[in-house]
Amino acid sequence: MPTTAAQRRGAGPGPVVRHCGPLPLLAVAVLCAAGAFAVRDWWQAAGALAVQALCLPLVVGDVRAAVRRLLPLALAALSVGWSTVLAGDSADPLWTALTAALRLVVLVLPGALLLGWLDAAEVGDHLAQRLRVPGRVVVAVVVALGRLDALVDSWDQVAAARRVRGLGPGRGPAGRVRWAASTSFGLLVDAVRGAGRVSLAMDARGFAGEGAGRRSWALPAPWRRADTVLLLAGTAVAAVPLLLRVGGAFLTSTS
Amino acid sequence: MSTTLNRSRAAHRWRTVDLLTAAVLGVAFGVVFWGWGILYTSLTPLFAAVPFVQSILSGVWLLPAVVAALVVRRPGAALLAEMTAASVEALMGSHWSTGVLVSGAIQGIGVELAVALFAWRRFGPAVAVLAGVLAAVLEGVYELFAYYAGAWTLGFQVLYVACFAVSGALVAGLGGWALVRSLARTGALSAFPAGREHRG
Amino acid sequence: MPDLALRGLTVTTPAGRTLVRDVDLDVATGERVLLAGPSGAGKSTVLRALAGLLEEDVEARGDVRLDGREALAGEVGLLVQDPLDALVAETAGRDTAFGPENAGLDRPGTWRRVARAHAAARYPAGRDREVRTLSGGERQRLALAGTLAADPAVLLLDEPTSMLDAPTAAAVRAAVLDAAGRDRGLLVVDHDVAGWAPHVDRVVVLGAGGDVVHDGPAAAAGRSPTGTGDLWWPGVAAPTPLDVPAGLLTPALDPGGGDVLHGEGLGLVRTRRGLRPRPPATVLSGVDVALPTGALTPVTGDSGAGKSSLLALLAGLAAPTSGRLLAAPALAGRRGRRAPHTWTSRELAARAGWVPQFPEHTFVAATVRAEVAVTAIVLGRDTGRGEALLELLGLSGLADAHPFRLSGGEQRRLALAGALAAGPALVVADEPTVGQDRGTWAVVAGLLAAAVRDGAAVAVGTHDGPLLGALGPRAGTAVRLHRGVPAEVAA
Ligand SMILES: Nc1ncnc2c1ncn2[C@@H]1O[C@H](COP(=O)(O)OP(=O)(O)OP(=O)(O)O)[C@@H](O)[C@H]1O
Ligand SMILES: Nc1ncnc2c1ncn2[C@@H]1O[C@H](COP(=O)(O)OP(=O)(O)OP(=O)(O)O)[C@@H](O)[C@H]1O
Ligand SMILES: [Mg+2]
Ligand SMILES: [Mg+2]
């Protein structure tokens, strides 16, 4: 039997988290996002962020790739902070804005890094075998995600064909928008037709058959010790904002 | 002895093309959004002075759900497509990471509610607009609380959701409906009832 | 294992056109049958009907039986034309396992089946190889393995070797024959009757009207059964290219004498974007090319050698990452720009015509007629040429059809018509003769020859030897690639 994606990841170098399966990765990402909802004050967010920062070496393998994944987050945090300054009504708009921005980082950061370790096919195996998500749906989504690269190539092809036929982007923003819209449409047509052809090929290999209900899975979906460790540690990190808030309330009430 | 030989079509069972078309629509929109990335980020600074109306652009994110619902016409198609589009964004690294998965579910459910009201029987422009509005309102409220920490004044919050709803009605609703019609005219939807209705 | 029997298949479109008329076809266990016929005859339609996978908007009457009963899912295995559509997983092993998974096999059984299928299809690379990194021939064999792993009683294949170079095609053909063995039926659709004839028991020919016009052993070498002269029978020589009226393809912009396009030391590095970005790959390096006016320049090489990549550079669709590619001064765009990739879309369209290798992704209009006219309309040129081209290519009867509805061979001819209709001075054609019968082949070859005669520069990427032979005398300096570099450098 060939190796699972987690085993292949584990064989190479990288941070500890590479040994983990997809379900705890997803669970921790979601829990950490949920934990951020407990943030009320800037120092709670800052505390949670500090704990998350301490965990970074366990999660980040390629620093450059991580920075690339986090860049959109930085922009989003700025935009949330700025809009809160404009639209907020608190007495202390700057602190409110800072809280909102930091809270967003606490909410998004763990997921942004953890989801980078996911492998679509592996997620599918685990969802179907461990969580009993219907197999046909899982397979369809995994196959569709697997066509993403083909669709990106197809975007290039559609754009190239339009360019050489004289339908390329004209000058000026209006021309560009029109071009983007018509190229996107070409891509959608290609995608839908491709979906028809692939489902034909899948049916020809027995996907449509009565037996699809008792579909088997060629690769196992093991739960290993690393998964338990990640889940426990991740839950602890996710709970930090809540602990800080409760602790803070306790301190102010006693003093 | 003579029988028809077309692909079998059971009334309620999801065929493979149904599943795959919904999912691939999700992925394709993921790619389209990615293709638009540059366009979209270049527009953001325009809204620096009035961020509360930026949601007027957000209707596009609802398109996968509306289009899938109108094409596949089965319970769950919108949710499947929107969740797939969200997964693409999450895997590629989006602004909101896991948040985008929750958004996907909320938007998908919004559209499902609208088509469910008509028992999956009607798929005209009015239903499409309703679907866009429902999804937009749910998503707008969720965004205000999840991302903006509910820190805005009520007036601005209402403005934000209202802009979202308008965008949902026009871009996702009418736009999605028109998109399905054009797709049908290319013959790409020949496997679906939508393809036969809009033909020619 | 059971015999497959098709009786009285008739397929009609909603518009009332009959695609296939009253076809009977038998494939016995262990029998090998070739289904041939002119382009657009309905061969692919018959295969889909046999697999129970016809589109829903056509009406099909008839009866398919497997040993007198209805076939179960997966018992009739269809391998679709484009291997990329047949592959459903990211790694080779997982892809082949798809059929056994659907059948509910247990894990050890699944992987035994995968190993057997890989051996039978002569799939050479490992189980953990990513599908996307495989060459065309490897993909084709992996797709075959995937079909075999579902253990079908009858194997249906649609043009399994049309995109492959001769040695790879022979290897895939051997794999197919091997894999089918003598305990399943095999039905292959292919234009290359000569290539398959020594290996099949029967040849069934569909006529242009969609009915069976021949069903029997392959003819003796050098002769074709009556009424099937359009096919590539063994020993039948390639037809002479059609004589196209002079002046039909005269370039709208006069490129002047000399080289229309001249490239030195061209290199191309491609990066794949997508979910998991892959490291950049050098697909071309150090390629010199000159496309003289009124000459044909062949671009040849094995599968994956870089032909399509070079042609895309020549057609201005990508920028070379190294080297220089310049057009003739007479063709300079605004501000004197001479590198094709710097031209605006209209400038490019006014100068170049491109026939893509996979035309089905690149149609831009909703009818065949509009597709041919698009460029001429954008440029304000005469659309009469387009109509004349459709007529020559046998597509005028389909002028109101949607390009996506056409058969594989028809789509490719339409792409050629679209590329030539606006009168380009530079014609770049990628595998223009794939999937053509002798009749349509003669037209395609004739049009390419006419473009050369009328003064365009023509670059053709192809593994069609007879085509280059037929166009030979006016050929420019051929470019032969091997793994992205000129073959003489590689040697
Ligand atoms: N769904 C459809 N609606 C209308 N016309 C169709 C449809 N499908 C196929 N056709 C037409 O039916 C004819 C036969 O198509 P088919 O693909 O079976 O041909 P083919 O013999 O495989 O040709 P080729 O060798 O070029 O691939 C073509 O002229 C095509 O335009
Ligand atoms: N977008 C891309 N990104 C990275 N590599 C690519 C890309 N497109 C093609 N390649 C690789 O470049 C090489 C040359 O491909 P190309 O399509 O030019 O070959 P070809 O000679 O036309 O082959 P064929 O005869 O199969 O059409 C192949 O190894 C291919 O895998
Ligand atoms: Mg065909
Ligand atoms: Mg090629």
Automatic annotation (TrEMBL), chain A:
InterPro entries: ABC/ECF_trnsptr_transmembrane (IPR003339). The keyword Hydrolase does not apply. The keyword Cell membrane does not apply. Its main location: membrane. It is a multi-pass membrane protein. It is found in: Membrane. Pfam families: CbiQ (PF02361). The chain crosses the membrane at residues 21-39, 45-63, 70-88, 94-118, 229-251. Keywords: Membrane, Transmembrane, Transmembrane helix. This is Energy-coupling factor transporter transmembrane protein EcfT. The lineage of its organism: Bacteria, Bacillati, Actinomycetota, Actinomycetes, Kineosporiales.
UniProtKB/TrEMBL annotation, chain B:
It comes from Kineococcus mangrovi. This is ECF transporter S component. Keywords: Membrane, Transmembrane, Transmembrane helix. The chain crosses the membrane at residues 20-40, 46-70, 127-148, 154-180.
UniProtKB/TrEMBL annotation, chain C:
Residues 4-233, 269-489 form the ABC transporter domain. The keyword ATP-binding applies. It comes from the Bacteria. InterPro entries: AAA+_ATPase (IPR003593), ABC_transporter-like_ATP-bd (IPR003439), ABC_transporter-like_CS (IPR017871), ABC_transpr_CbiO/EcfA_su (IPR015856), ECF_ABC_transporter_ATP-bd (IPR050095), P-loop_NTPase (IPR027417). Pfam families: ABC_tran (PF00005). Keywords: ATP-binding, Nucleotide-binding, Transport. GO terms for molecular function: ATP binding. The keyword Ribonucleoprotein does not apply. This is ATP-binding cassette domain-containing protein. SUPFAM superfamilies: P-loop containing nucleoside triphosphate hydrolases. Belongs to the ABC transporter superfamily.
